[in-house]
Amino acid sequence: MKTRYAALAEEIAARFGDRLRAVPSTCGELTYEVAPDALIEVGTTLRDDDAFRFEMLIDLCGVDYLTQGQAQWKTDSATRSGFSRAAIPDVIIPDVDEPMHPRRFAVVYHLLSVSLNHRMRLKAYTGEANPPIVPSVVDVWSSANWYEREAFDLFGILFDGHPDLRRILTDYGFIGHPFRKDFPLSGNLEMRYDPEQGRVVYEPVSIEPRTLVPRVIRDDNRYERDLRPEPGDE
Description:
- This protein is of the alpha/beta class.
- The protein is built from 3 helices and 9 strands.
- The chain has helices at residues 3-16, 39-48, 144-155, and strands at residues 20-22, 31-34, 56-64, 105-113, 118-125, 133-135, 158-160, 189-194, 199-204.
- The termini are far apart.
């Protein structure tokens, strides 16, 4: 880690203590996990305090950690259905009475100090709330407005206090949130222009579910490097 970032990390640790938990980085970046109920206070301090001066929010995005670490290719058996997640529609809108996994959804904030040329990242997990929700930071960084609308549209994350939280990328009649890991790959509805009705109509999706990886895992010399013949043995 660069010297100036090491000094910044020490200042952050001294100022915020347990309110910010450092996330390990392999490339020397500063990333901290913050609880949603401390987000506004921490963000305001990072913006206004002369030691930090993070005046600009340059990006905000949602993350869905469902199935994190699960590999589709690690298998020794054949299957009739394939391994592609969400190939077959399952649950588009989860039961609101069922709590979320506390670390499934997160909101990530990328901050820039223009005056001090520092960068850092905050990450807030949404907890068990269903639908997931965190406080809006629009009053801290006004650039968060459209970013939060995007995260709401694509991930279904609500931002408490946002002045105009509505979809920004998908169509008005869209059902579900397409960047969630359990959203069906083929979607739920399709639309077309109906010349007889003179308008766009919505219909159930007609695309057949398909898998994107082999249904059979083969173990022979075509695929296994250790089983290939040596040069001259063919």
